[in-house]
Amino acid sequence: MKKRKFFLTKAIFDIYRNSLAYISSRVAQFGIGRGQWYFINHLLFGRDGISQEQLSKELFVDSAHTARAVKKLEDGGFVFRKPDLRDARKKNVYVTEKAIAIKDDYHKLYQDLNKILVDGFTPEELKLVRSFFYRMRKNIVSYMGNSERDFPR
After folding, report:
1. 10-residue averages of pLDDT along the chain (153 residues)
2. What ranges in 28-91 are assigned the alpha helix state H?
3. Which positions ≥6 away from 84 have C-beta within 8 Å?
4. Rounded distance, CA 134 to CA 147, Å?
5. Could you tell me which of 33, 70, 34, 32 has the C-alpha nearest to residue 53?
6. Which helix (H) or strand (E) holds 61?
7. pTM for this one?
8. How many C-beta neighbours within 10 Å does residue 115 have?
9. Domains in the chain, start-ordered, CATH in brackets?
């Protein structure tokens, strides 16, 4: 039998697609759609009160996608926009009390997914995997001409 070639990118995409399916099906209970969860996640656990432009930059998505996602989150009562104090042309995006109220349950979804992904790993393996993934992220960010500080944490 011929040995199949291993493609790291295929494994990463498979993990990504299955993780998307896992997350999307579970955030639906909060009224958050597939195209919005990444944005609300970043605002809840990252940087609340940033402009849509900065949000696009930090998430590496185009401004039209960000505008649509923010609009849907706003319509759902999860975020609101208000003019930037330094530049009234910009609107900053903030999470609402409704979003903050689901923060713990929302975070648990990610904790559960992490547990699934690392099931059976030893602490040493986890340390190595984390190190390898962060190095790969640094490599692609560097290759694409971005700095580590521009990359979402």
Report:
1. 78 93 92 91 90 91 94 96 88 96 93 96 96 93 71 46
2. 37-45, 52-59, 63-75
3. 51, 90, 91, 92
4. 13
5. 70
6. none
7. 0.79
8. 9
9. 22-117 (1.10.10.10)
